[in-house]
Amino acid sequence: MRNLPNRLRDPFARGRALFIIEAALEYFISILLTDAFLASVTTRLGMSSATTGVLSSFVSLGCVFQLANILVADRRPVRRWLPWVSIFASCLYALLYFLPGFALEDGLRTGLFAVFLLTGRFIANLLAPSKIAWQMNLVAQHERGVYTANKEIVSLIGGTAFTFAASAFLDRCRERGDVSLAFPVLGGVILLLAVLNTATLLMTPEPAGETLSRRGGLAELKRNPVARRLILVSVLSSLAEYVTVPFLGVYKIRELGFSMTFISLLTLGQSLFRALVSRRMGRFADKMGFRNMLMLCYGVEAAAFLCVAFAVPQNGKIMFVLFSLLHGLAYAGINSGSINLLYDYIPRGKCPAVLAVKATAAGLCGFLATVAASRFVDHIENAGNMLLGMHVYAQQAAACISVFVVLTLIWVLKTLNPPAASDIISTDSKE
Predict the structure, then answer these.
(1) CA pair distance 99, 184, nearest whole angstrom
(2) CB neighbours of 188 closer than 8 A, spacing ≥ 6?
(3) How far apart are CA 47 and CA 41, in angstroms?
(4) Digit-coded pLDDT (tens) for 34-87
(5) Reported confidence tier of residue 23, pLDDT bands at 50, 70, 90
């Protein structure tokens, strides 16, 4: 066995490497569809801030579309159809950057922008559970932690470099007054990334003999209380994040007086620290289990929100340096652990349907949490930053709610019994 080539000892090693590349390429495309990049296009099209905000809110709801994956969960082989549907979505994203150059009425361009963006998001989220299942079938059960950590490290480091390069290019075009040139170039970059992404998917092998069952996945939710508890974990995680994080940007600038340079350094430091510790978290998960790893990570996340709860103008920089590092440390495990936890308890063939329901519930609850929290934040600010007779900033109060939600989440995780080997072996063949 020692003399066998690597491809014979591990026939799926190449597939795992290709999926790491695919994830990075997909992440690069998503970078061009968020924050300042998306706002640059909408501003060029003459959209108002309110319209841009509404479109961004719908984008955050994109994971709700994953529920539609139940309709295609049992279509195999996935490699025959998924790459072609995926590149169609990416072409729609590229069209967003070509729209400013089209000689159309503003109203029509705005309508087309919304249609292209939301259709692309629908398709991307429709494919997500099937793509995750394809990827996980290439990874041995005891290696999922290190593998997903490696995948995240490549995406984070590559994404940081890609963001700086794209931002510098856009800024340089603005300085020269050539913004009209920048958009088609970035659209062409999306098309190039889409072609490379599709090529990696077409070259990735798909393990045979794994039966995906949409009926079995839905039945698993009905009869298995553990599956419902796993969905509750994702919902609570989403609630904790979206009650506080969406409001921190304004807090850093307005109340704490941070410069954009300092905010950028916080973001960069968090990404690099997260990449640095991701592999260690993966090893810990492979050795101790994703349940135990997530309990540790959510404990760190509670400490991160506690830093925000105590952040005031006098100590703001120190507290947000701590928050950024702790938040990065926590999400080094949370980001991939939430999916891997599902594969610890649910038979693989039933995971796509359960993943779709989990993402839908978490996304919808996160969006509603932000809407509700915005009214809470407005109430405190309109009262002169007073709550129950105490002077407190709205973001501090929201962070206290997040701490409580995270502690509740840890308790829910603690009620789960560690998965036995028999719990994570697919039982599809028996059905």
Answers:
(1) 9
(2) 94
(3) 9
(4) 766 777 787 777 776 556 655 665 655 666 676 666 666 566 677 788 889 889
(5) confident
For the stretch 122-168, pLDDT in tens is 888 888 777 877 777 777 766 767 777 788 788 888 888 888 788 77
CA angle 293, 285, 73 (to 5 degrees): 100
Quick one: 210 exposed, middle or buried, by C-beta within 10 A (0-12, 13-18, 19+)? middle
Spatial distance between the Cα atoms of 36 and 247, rounded to a whole number of angstroms:
17
- Domains defined for the chain, CATH in brackets: 6-203 (1.20.1250.20), 214-430 (1.20.1250.20)
For residue 77, whether the previous peptide bond is cis, meaning omega lies within 30 degrees of 0, is yes
> pTM of the full predicted structure?
0.72
**End-to-end C-alpha distance for the chain, whole angstroms:** 35
Is the Cβ–Cβ distance between 233 and 411 less than 8 Å?
no
| Structure tokens, 72 | 């295609």
Q: Helix, strand or coil for residue 312? A: coil
Helices within 289-350 (DSSP H only): 290-309, 316-345
Q: Is 117 exposed, middle or buried (0-12, 13-18, 19+ CB in 10 A)?
A: buried
Provide the sign of the torsion angle of the four alpha carbons 407, 409, 415, 420, taken in this order. Answer: negative
Inter-residue contact 161 to 33 (CB < 8 Å):
no
Q: Produce one character per residue of 161-187: b if its CB has 16 or more CB atoms within 10 Å, e if not.
A: ebbeebeeebeebeeeeeeeebbeebb
CA torsion sign for 193, 70, 336, 397 is positive
235: Cβ contacts below 8 Å, ≥ 6 apart: 361, 362, 365
Query: Which residues neighbour 262 within 8 Å (Cβ) at sequence distance 6 or greater?
Result: 317
**Cα–Cα dist 16/335, whole Å:** 18
**Hey, what are 115's tokens?**
């249609």
Q: Which residues contact 81 (CB under 8 A, 6 or more apart)?
A: 75
Angle at the Cα of 351 from the Cα atoms of 30 and 64, rounded to 5 degrees: 45
Give the three-state DSSP class for 424: helix
How far is C-alpha 119 from the geometric centre of its chain's CA atoms? 18
Alpha-carbon distance 293 to 153, whole Å?
18
CA distance 356 to 290: 20
Contact criterion met (CB below 8 Å) for 73 and 212: yes
Q: How far is residue 22's CA from residue 124's CA, in Å, rounded to a whole number? A: 14
